[in-house]
Amino acid sequence: MTLFLQIMLLVTSVLLVLLVLLHRAKGGGLSSLFGGGMQSSLAGSSVAEKNLDRMTFFVIALWVISIIGSGLLVSLSS
Q1: Tens digits of per-residue pLDDT, 15-69?
Q2: How far apart are CA 66 and CA 16, in angstroms?
Q3: Among 18, 56, 65, 68, whose CB has the most other CB atoms within 10 angstroms?
Q4: pLDDT (0 to 100) of residue 49
């Protein structure tokens, strides 16, 4: 079970980094320092962005579950 949670933590961490990098910059952050904030978004969120948000929240939930599960296993084994 510990090995499964560690693998799940590793996979979800990599997926989370990739999904966050796929998001469009909204401005006001570090991306605006390097010229990323010059774009204006005329339309709201598209369907692809909403689906990307949903996938990101799902992966975040799996990531949190794997961290809590790993912590519980460590505390119960000692």
Answers
A1: 999 999 988 776 655 555 566 555 555 455 688 889 999 999 999 999 999 999 9
A2: 13
A3: 56
A4: 87
Residue 62 is encoded by which pair of tokens? 């799996």
Concatenating the DSSP letter of every residue in 23-41 gives: SPP-SSSGGGGGTGGG---
Burial of 11-35, coded b for 16+ CB within 10 Å and e otherwise, reads ebeebeeebeeeeeeeeeeeeeeee
What is the token pair recorded at 52?
Answer: 């990307």
Q: What is the spatial distance between Cα 78 and Cα 67, in angstroms, rounded to a whole number?
A: 17
Q: Is 10 helix (H, G, I), strand (E, B) or coil?
A: helix
Q: Are 53 and 19 in contact (CB under 8 A)?
A: no
Q: What is the pLDDT of residue 36?
A: 56
